[in-house]
Amino acid sequence: MRVHSQFLISAHSPEQFPAPAIPEIAFLGRSNVGKSSLLNALLGSKQAKVSSTPGRTRSINFFSITDSPQRQQPQMYFADLPGYGYAKISKSISAEWPKFIEPYLHERPTLALCLCLVDSNIPPQPSDAQLIDFLKSTGRPLIVVATKADKLSGNGRTKAQIALQRGLDVEQLLLCSAKTGAGLKELWAAIQSAAAEPA
């Protein structure tokens, strides 16, 4: 899918969030899960900064998404949330969650879908399970997206999918690769479907 995207704002508090007028898709995951790479692959441009140092995102970064650069009003926002689970910064990130991340996930009226990114190459992580349980408790629609699937063989992908679904207690899981584009079409279809649902 061809889209036009533009960086909107880095928000450090609910007061800085854009006005809740259009559907929003939240991207969540551990600091080294490949979140920025997946965002850029979906957008077809390098909007999100890919860093060699995990945990650089310390705010919620909003991007406006349209299907044409001529369209004046964005059709949806992508919200890139801070990563978690990286030992050196996990305490500082955890301290920030109650200030603006939890209010966003709990209270944002236009949040249409949460994409929980997990690494397909490692076993289910407690921090990922904790996030998924938290989102289930909020009643938010969510999809678990397993990144870096290009590093697995066909048989390895099947095994990883089963292990992750069992370990994270989810019925659905989408394997994706920012490098090869595998799964991106299906992910876009899920995003568009969620954005089309009435709030």
Automatic annotation (TrEMBL):
GO biological processes: division septum assembly
Pfam families documented for this protein: MMR_HSR1
Keywords, in A-Z order: Cell cycle, Cell division, GTP-binding, Magnesium, Metal-binding, Nucleotide-binding, Septation
GO molecular function, one term: metal ion binding
Span of domain EngB-type G: 21-197
InterPro entries: G_ENGB_dom, GTP-bd, GTP-bd_ribosome_bio_YsxC, P-loop_NTPase, Small_GTP-bd
A GO CC annotation given for this chain: cytosol
Source taxon at top rank: Bacteria
Cofactor(s) this protein cannot do without: Mg(2+)
Entry similarity comment: Belongs to the TRAFAC class TrmE-Era-EngA-EngB-Septin-like GTPase superfamily. EngB GTPase family.
Primary role: Necessary for normal cell division and for the maintenance of normal septation.
HAMAP family: GTPase_EngB
Record-given protein name: Probable GTP-binding protein EngB
Organism: Silvibacterium bohemicum
Gene: engB
